[in-house]
Amino acid sequence: MPLMVRAFPVLAGKEKDVREFSSQLAAARAAEASEFYRRLGVAHESWHLQQTAAGPLVIVVTELSEVEANARAYAASQLPFDRWFKDQVHSLTGVSPDQDPLGPPTAQIFDWHDRA
Predict the structure, then answer these.
(1) CATH class, range 3-93
(2) Whole-angstrom Cα distance, residue 65 to residue 17?
(3) Confidence band, pLDDT 50/70/90 cuts, at residue 1
(4) Mean of pLDDT values over 70-82
(5) 18: nearest Cα among 54, 68, 57, 53
(6) Which of 17, 65, 67, 109 sits CB 3.0–4.6 Å from 41 for a disulfide?
(7) Contact 103, 10 (CB under 8 A)
(8) At what angle do helices 15-26 and 30-39 cross, to 10 degrees?
(9) Is 104 helix (H, G, I), strand (E, B) or coil?
(10) CA-based nearest residue to 69, from 34, 36, 43, 102
């Protein structure tokens, strides 16, 4: 399954809100989040908050099937949970999942594997 890594900027003053959003996904809205991820072919996703000189970033690592098809389905979806999720991403990062469902463009520039 393909692995995607993206870095989302956290808008000024929104770090606490990003933490709250992730807490809602892990607790109060966990069942909806699970259904959302399964429906979009996601096998695993993790978020990592990184402090940088340019401000905080949320590094998102996603393992999913059929990247392009699922990205189009995500962008087009207007289901209530999906709309809430996308609105949260947009308000916290400035990135619109309706326009950029895979997040900010990322190019892998190095990959190392132990081949021993």
Answers:
(1) alpha beta
(2) 29
(3) confident
(4) 96
(5) 57
(6) 65
(7) no
(8) 80
(9) coil
(10) 102
